[in-house]
Amino acid sequence: MSRAATLSQRLPRPTIKMKHLNWSKVNRHTISNSVWQEVQQDLSVSPIANINYQQVEQLFCQKSRAPPTPRPSRAQSASEVSLLDPKKSLNVNIFLKQFKISHAEVADLIRQCRSAEIGAERLRGFLRILPEDSEVGMIKEYQGDKAKLGDAEKFYVELLRVEGYQVRLEGMIQMEELYPAAEKLKPQITSLLTTADKILTSDSLKEFFAYILTLGNFINMGSYAGDAIGFRLPTISKLWETRANTPGMTLLHYIVETVDEKELEILAFLDNLGDLSSPARLSVEGLSEEVGTLNSDLTELTKKLHDAPKDIQERFSEFTKKAAGVTHDLQVSLQELERSKIKLAQYFCEDESKFRLEDCVSIFHTLSCKVQTARKDNESRRKREERKKRMEEEHRRQAAEREATSGKKRGKGPPLSNPQEDSGGCVIDRLLADIRKGDFKLRKKSHAPTMSASN
């Protein structure tokens, strides 16, 4: 019998059923050169003597509660043996509720590697509830009635009967996740490669840069920024940050207006690049990390399979071969992406160590969005100006009509002389002419009747 068992036998046995101290036991084979080795040696020489076991028994015994109407389920739960930490036991039980089958059938799904029936999400969940080494030791060392164990403990009993259960779970997870991940990553990498190639081969883009360089040198003439032979890629954002004197107009608004009016082709490269909203959200570093994770996980699984039971090797050998080819293709695509990044950095005279392909794509995506906005703004401004012009013409027309109408009304009376030819006495002449015709009438003021007249 081991020393730990001998020490336990030297302790008095409780006279009644006690509560449990839910601790995680240290594996007895790993205590070499540890504090627990020294503790065991000290206890074997001088056991602890100052413990009042009777008091401990009174304080930590299980109190028997006799409910007035006991239920069978409560009586059963009172006799259950719990070996796991309550929180761990609860988590295991909650997870197992997803399966409407017995613990033995769940364990058999793992044994048969039926990943499609379990699903990737639940396979990941299994990894979170797997027993730790100390818990495995407790389950294996339990010699009591296994029927009295709690649900979580019963599941662990079934799980431990599955040889290499952790390798099986990790292999099934990769079977369910690697191919979908590769199918998502491949088009993302391809979209960045295609965009980089279009940028490098676009004649319209070179014309656009030449136009901006000419326009910028004109604006900057005579200043420290003049006489430039080129500009860095982030300079493109200055096109919509440089404001014109016209309210709401920027340098980009002017360029777009000129391109549309003169039907220039310097912005045609944006149509050729297409919708960059998806590539602009990608990160080369993030893609590299995802591919690296797939490759490292597969390498780790391959190493574990070398020491795994033969049936596990047979189940996953074909998968690992195909998966190795998939991850290799992804790594080759990433190498192509790195070469495209260097080409673009050299093409735009940027620092290769600091240049980021996703930043380049994002700049052209933003430019495309800003050009569309500028076109809408220009169209709105053109419509406002046309509306303002029509209103001014309408006001002039209405003024002319009012002038013509008032002229006709004046024509019914005596003809009026030209105001420029009227002298100071023209008013008197018109009054005399009216008196001769008898058309002039003097208006007399009516006086209120006096008091004498009324009498």
Automatic annotation (TrEMBL):
Region annotation Disordered: where it falls in the sequence: 374-428
Pfam families, per the entry: FH2 (PF02181)
SUPFAM superfamilies: Formin homology 2 domain (FH2 domain) (SSF101447)
Basic and acidic residues composition bias: residue spans: 374-406
InterPro entries to which the protein is assigned, alphabetical: FH2_Formin (IPR015425), FH2_Formin_sf (IPR042201)
Domain FH2 intervals: 8-397
SMART domains linked: FH2
The protein's name: FH2 domain-containing protein
Organism: Scylla olivacea
